[in-house]
Design a protein that fits this description.
Layout: H1 10-21, E1 25-31, E2 34-40, H2 42-170, H3 179-255, H4 260-264, H5 289-314, E3 325-328, E4 331-334, E5 341-344, E6 347-350, E7 357-359, E8 364-371, E9 377-384, E10 387-397, E11 404-405, E12 410-414, E13 425-431, E14 434-436, H6 438-450
Antiparallel strand pairs: 1-2, 3-6, 4-5, 6-13, 7-12, 8-9, 8-11, 9-10, 10-12, 10-13, 13-14
C-alpha cells in the first residue's frame, strides 16, 4: 500500500504562484556594440509591481481627497457666512426689542412714582382735615356746655331778683329803719345786674362763634367730599391699571400650561413669620370711608401683581441655546436607540455649533452639577416656587452645586455624554416634581420679550 507524501506548506504554494505569475525574465541591453543581459528575478518583479501599484494608489487617493476637501471647504464657508449673517440679524432684533422693553419699563416706573407721590399727598391732606374737623367738633361741644351753664346761672339770678323784690315790698313799711340795708341791697342788685348783662353778652358771643364754626364745618365737609371724589377717581384708575397688569401676568403664566393658583400656592416665603386672626375692615362712617375701601382694594391688587411678577421672574421663559433646532419634542416617541415607544419628558435641542454655550433660562441656584446615569453630565437649577430646569448630555460644566445663577448665565457646553446618539441638549422643566412641556415656556417667553 502506497503511503501519502508530506503536505507542502502554504509558503511553497505561494512561491509557486508568484513564479507562475512573474516568471524569470532577461532584458538585453545593447550600447556601443556591447551586449548586456539584465536578469529580472520574480522577487524583483514583485517589488517593482508593488512600488508602481502603491504610487498609482496614492496618486488616486490624493486627487480624490483634494477634490472632496475643496468641496467641503467651500460649502462650510458658505454655511458659516449664512450663520454669521443670521446671528447678526437676530442680535440686532433682540437689542431693539430689549431697548423697547426697557423704555416701556422706565416710563411705567415714572408714572407709578408720580401717582404714588400724588396719592401720599392727598392722603395727608385728608388726614389733616379729619383731625381739624374733630377738633372743631370738640370746641363746639365745649361752647354748648358753657351756654347751658350760663343759662342756668341767669335763671338763678332772675330767681334771686324776684326774691329781692318780694323782700323789698315786705320791708317798705320799715324802709326808714332799714335804709342802710336797702342801699346795700340796691348796690348788690346793681352789681348782680351788671354781672348778668356781662353773662348775656358772653352768651351772645359764644352763640355767634358757634354759628361761625358750624358754617366753617359745613364748608370743610363740602371740600372734603369734593376731594374724596377726586381721590376715588384716581384710585379707581390705579385699580384699573393694576387689573390690566395682573391680567397680562396671568396670561403669561397660563401660556406655560400652569395655573395662577398653582404657582401662587408656592409663594409663601414673602409672607413668612406672620399670623393672627383675620378681622375685616369695617366702615367708620367718616367722609373718607369709600376712599379707604378703594385704597385697601388697590393694596391687595398691587400685592397680587407683585407676587405674579416674582413668579414670572422665576419662570424659565428663555431658550437655553441662542441658536438651536428641535431634534425631539416633548411627549410620546420612539426611542432613538431601541426603537420602542417611550415617554420623552424633555425637549432635545441641536445646534449648528458643535460646542455651543448652554445658558440658564432663568435665575436660580444650582442643586446638582455632575454625572447622572443616562443623562451624562447634568446641571439642575432650582428657580424657586417649585420650578426646576435640567440640562443633560453636556460636554462640560462651568458651574458648581450651590452657586447662584443669573438669567442667561453660561453653565456649560453642548455635548454627547450619557445615553445619546449625537451632540444635543436634553432640556427639562419640572414644576412641583412634575415634568412640563418646555416648548410652552419658550412660547410664553416669546410673548413676554415681544411686549
Amino acid at each position: 500500500m502506497k503511503e501519502n507524501g508530506p503536505r507542502r506548506p502554504w509558503r511553497v504554494h505561494a512561491r509557486n504562484f508568484v513564479q507562475r505569475l512573474f516568471p524569470e525574465r532577461q532584458v538585453v541591453l545593447r550600447a556601443e556594440g556591447r551586449v548586456t543581459y539584465v536578469r529580472l528575478t520574480p522577487r524583483i518583479q514583485v517589488y517593482f509591481f508593488a512600488v508602481v501599484f502603491l504610487a498609482l494608489g496614492w496618486t488616486t487617493f490624493s486627487s480624490v481627497n483634494f477634490l472632496r476637501h475643496n468641496a467641503i471647504v467651500s460649502d462650510k464657508d458658505r454655511r458659516i457666512a449664512e450663520i454669521v449673517a443670521e446671528k447678526d440679524r437676530r442680535i440686532s432684533q433682540s437689542r431693539e426689542a430689549y431697548q423697547v422693553l426697557l423704555d416701556q419699563f422706565r416710563k411705567g416706573k415714572r408714572v407709578n412714582e408720580t401717582l404714588t407721590d400724588n396719592l401720599e399727598g392727598h392722603t395727608s391732606v385728608i388726614r389733616d382735615l379729619t383731625l381739624e374737623n374733630k377738633a372743631l367738633q370738640q370746641q363746639l361741644e365745649i361752647a354748648s356746655a358753657k351756654i347751658n351753664q350760663t343759662e342756668l346761672e341767669r335763671q338763678k339770678i332772675l330767681a334771686a331778683r324776684e326774691d329781692l323784690k318780694s323782700r323789698l315790698n315786705g320791708v317798705q313799711q320799715t324802709e326808714l329803719a332799714v335804709k342802710d340795708e336797702n342801699r346795700s341791697l340796691q348796690s348788690e342788685l346793681e352789681t348782680r345786674f351788671t354781672e348778668l348783662e356781662g353773662m348775656v353778652a358772653e352768651r351772645d358771643q359764644v352763640m355767634f362763634e358757634a354759628n361761625r364754626m358750624r358754617r366753617h364745618i359745613t364748608e370743610l365737609e363740602s371740600r372734603l367730599a369734593s376731594l374724596q371724589d377726586q381721590q376715588v377717581e384716581t384710585v379707581q384708575r390705579l385699580n384699573d391699571q393694576a387689573n390690566a397688569l395682573i391680567d397680562d401676568a396671568s396670561r403669561v403664566i397660563e401660556l406655560t400650561g400652569l395655573s395662577v393658583s398653582e404657582v401662587l400656592g408656592q409663594e409663601t416665603s414673602m409672607f413668612a413669620d406672620q399670623g393672627g386672626p383675620f378681622v375685616a375692615t369695617q366702615p367708620d362712617g367718616l367722609p373718607a370711608d369709600k376712599l379707604k375701601a378703594n385704597l385697601n382694594d388697590l393694596d391687595l391688587r398691587v400685592d397680587q401683581w407683585s407676587r405674579l411678577q416674582d413668579v414670572i421672574r422665576r419662570l424659565p421663559l428663555a431658550p437655553p441655546l441662542n441658536y438651536y433646532y428641535v431634534t425631539a419634542k416633548y411627549g410620546k416617541r420612539r426611542d432613538p436607540i431601541n426603537k420602542k415607544w417611550a415617554m420623552h419628558y424633555g425637549l432635545d435641542l441641536g445646534s449648528t455649533f458643535k460646542r455651543a454655550s448652554i445658558l440658564a433660562s432663568a435665575p436660580g441656584v444650582v442643586t446638582y452639577a455632575g454625572w447622572r446615569g443616562n443623562y451624562g453630565k447634568l446641571v439642575e437649577i432650582d428657580h424657586g416656587a417649585g420650578i426646576k430646569t435640567r440640562y443633560g448630555h453636556m460636554h462640560s460644566i462651568t458651574v458648581k452645586k450651590g452657586q447662584k445663577i443669573k438669567f442667561q448665565e453660561k453653565i456649560g457646553l453642548l455635548g454627547n455624554t450619557g445615553r445619546s446618539t449625537g451632540a444635543h441638549l436634553h432640556y427639562e422643566v419640572v414644576v412641583k416634581d412634575k415634568p412640563k412641556n418646555p416648548s410652552d415656556f419658550i412660547k410664553a417667553g416669546r410673548y413676554v420679550f415681544q411686549e
